[in-house]
């Protein structure tokens, strides 16, 4: 991975992915005790940054690969990003999703024209299902984070932050699953805004990246269910992404589901954006863990916004 | 009023107001039966386009006027726009608000540093209260729409639409109260994208602009209470704004509160933005009154997003 791959991805996604706004509110600054900027990736096509990586990867496929189609595993955001990017390239898409993925994400993935194959995480082998389908149909697998073209696409978000804020002292909090966005943004900022430092943010109890960075080796999560932050729950950091995070990122930060719901409520009230629990983790860290950061500026990437109304109602309740 | 005043306002607000994004979703296009773009003014500072006009007007005051301070009448969005723009100019601000304005708008106006004076619309004379305070303290009154510098500021939203979409055939639906945004955008588009036509959108039962345009003279609303769309309920079109709308706008469109709630729910689910009922009127027209429009593209300006959580919960219920 290198910065030239990210710049090339930026050229490919130009005019296709949205350049998302950087929002702020004096009310949030007051809570955090410092200047907080929110990169609103929830306003990206399909509602999350994943469309960047999906477009980056699919736009590099050959005509034969496009014709045969693509396959992806995802609990929802990568699924939608791949589905829409594939649809716009005229490529068939098969998405293998856990049966307990949020209903809205399954419905949206189908609505973007993908064939959704559901599996039970407890009893079925996702990789075996995917390998069989890929072999039968000649599908190209697009991995959600351990894929250089995907990391390059996610890194374009970092280029935009550097362009908008310049090279200033700041910590950049990133909602972190497998580390695709985190490592891509870290490479982009190291090149274009080296005074900025990336901080991975994870759900408490699912902080594999935080523990891996602290321990100097890849560690796994003990469980994969039981958090509202489905979007950023992964078994372990990627083989591609972990060394990048080791080189370039500061320590990880863990936040609770309750903190994510409160951050969603404040984003509703103060920024007028809709974010899902996993997409609110970085903002939750900025607002409710001020001692975890240094300096007077934190940029929080709000990674996604696909949220069931019932969950959002719980976030509204935190404002009462 | 002329286009040069709007271009001058654009220069003054540059770097202070946000350039808001133009959003879209294939799901919304499908409902509307055409391409729908949403200009997300809810992402503007203070949560509505009103900050544009407030900054445009306050930035033209003399040092003595700034020192003495400003006064405004508003049910909430102009109030917040004036309060924040005044605060950033170091000007004291007094805002006269109806006692039944949404609680969140009153609280926000105070939080932006303004002194809020509440009055009862049924029993007290707003203008008398304002005139007394202005005389006592030497305050400059900044009217919400019938003020050229305010109209010029709101018109900058139209310049941005023209810059982003170019001069293409489109109808531009605008949530319309007194007509400040509607007339400002109409002037901007007449100059920079003359193939676009502005369509005022109002709440059913409070459609003074629609009836005035149809009748060729200013008509009043029979009542001022009883709609969720508090943000765009005004007694009648402005003396400044009405002739501009007569010259440049197509017919008005009226939408129901229920349609606005449904549009809010769809903006939540599909665009990940928070809009209030009055700010959703234009999108409601685009989605639920397709026969009211011509051509294959509608731009709906989502004017504001300050909404009480209980009202937003009703919008979420429409998605069930």
Automatic annotation (TrEMBL), chains A, B:
Annotated GO biological process: D-serine biosynthetic process
Keywords assigned: Lyase, Magnesium, Pyridoxal phosphate
Domain Tryptophan synthase beta chain-like PALP: 14-304
Superkingdom in the source lineage: Bacteria
Keyword Ribosomal protein part of the UniProt annotation: no
Swiss-Prot/TrEMBL cofactor(s): pyridoxal 5'-phosphate; Ca(2+); Mg(2+); Mn(2+)
Family: Belongs to the serine/threonine dehydratase family.
UniProt protein name: Threonine dehydratase
């Amino acid at each position: 991975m290198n910065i030239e791959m990210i710049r090339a991805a930026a050229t490919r996604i130009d005019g296709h992915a949205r350049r998302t706004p950087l929002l702020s509110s004096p009310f949030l600054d007051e809570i955090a005790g410092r200047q907080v900027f929110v990169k609103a990736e929830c306003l990206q096509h399909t509602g999350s940054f994943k469309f960047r990586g999906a477009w980056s990867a699919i736009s590099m496929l050959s005509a034969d690969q496009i014709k045969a189609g693509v396959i992806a595993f995802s609990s929802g955001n990568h699924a939608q990003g791949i589905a829409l990017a594939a649809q716009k390239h005229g490529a068939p898409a098969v998405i293998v999703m856990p049966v307990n993925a949020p209903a809205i994400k399954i419905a949206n993935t189908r609505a973007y024209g993908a064939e959704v194959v559901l599996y039970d995480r407890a009893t079925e082998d996702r990789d075996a299902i995917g390998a069989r389908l890929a072999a039968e149909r000649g599908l190209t697998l697009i991995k959600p984070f351990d894929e250089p073209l995907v990391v390059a696409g996610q890194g374009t978000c970092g280029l935009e932050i550097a362009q908008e804020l310049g090279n200033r002292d700041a910590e950049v909090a990133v909602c972190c699953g497998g580390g695709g966005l985190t490592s891509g943004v870290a490479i982009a900022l190291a090149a274009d805004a080296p005074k900025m430092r990336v901080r991975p943010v994870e759900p408490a109890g699912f902080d594999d990246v935080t523990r891996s960075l602290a321990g100097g080796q890849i560690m796994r999560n003990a469980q994969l269910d039981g958090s509202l932050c489905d979007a950023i729950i992964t078994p372990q950091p990627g083989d591609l992404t972990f060394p990048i995070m080791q080189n370039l990122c500061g320590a990880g930060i863990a936040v609770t589901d309750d903190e994510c719901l409160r951050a969603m409520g404040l984003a509703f009230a103060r920024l007028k954006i809709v974010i899902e629990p996993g997409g609110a983790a970085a903002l939750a860290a900025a607002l409710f863990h001020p001692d975890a950061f240094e300096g007077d500026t934190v940029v929080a990437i709000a990674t996604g916004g696909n949220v069931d109304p019932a969950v959002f109602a719980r976030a509204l309740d935190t404002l009462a």
